[in-house]
Design brief:
Elements: H1 2-12, H2 41-56, H3 61-71, H4 75-89, H5 94-99, H6 107-119, H7 122-157
Helix pairs in contact: 2-3, 2-7, 3-4, 6-7
């Protein structure tokens, strides 16, 4: 109810609301920095694949990011995507908007976005990033599996 009232008030004031969120009881959300982790490689791969699909359908980047904001499950990634959309609406390039969220987007990710924008092939850049994230995820799974056997042998030996 209060969310709807806030939206109504802002719209009456002639403002366009891009997003609205409830804050914590102290007037701000409290986040502990050691709990802030980058999204998992799987989340990033899904984001990249969805972005490619939407862009290939002819949807403008701003609209694609708006759709992805609604679809992204990881809260930190969702917030970063929303901020990127806002940055683009203000005139930034996608890479520049992503660079503001280096806590989410790595340097190589930003560079690939920049290269994709410059060459007009964002879809190819993001497809390659998705492939890389998927390879990273497989490698982590392989390392985990390889680590389990020695641990089991060690525990059984004790």
């Amino acid at each position: 109810e209060s969310r709807d009232k806030a939206l109504e008030e802002l719209r009456r004031g002639g403002l366009t609301v891009a997003s609205i969120a409830e804050t914590g009881a102290l007037g701000k959300d409290i986040e502990l920095s050691f709990l802030k982790r980058k999204p998992k490689a799987r989340d990033m791969a899904v984001f990249c694949r969805q972005f490619v699909s939407i862009i290939n359908a002819g949807v403008p980047v701003v609209d694609a990011l708006e759709m992805l904001t609604a679809q992204t499950e990881n809260k930190r990634l969702r917030d970063a995507v929303a901020e990127c959309r806002t940055g683009i609406e203000k005139g930034d390039s996608l890479a520049a908007a992503m660079a503001r969220r280096r806590d989410i987007f790595s340097g190589i990710f930003i560079t690939m976005a920049e290269a994709g924008e410059a060459s007009g092939s964002l879809d190819i850049s993001f497809s390659r990033m998705a492939e890389q994230f998927e390879k990273d995820e497989k490698l982590k799974a392989t390392v985990k599996k390889a680590s389990i056997y020695p641990i089991v042998v060690f525990v059984v030996a004790i």
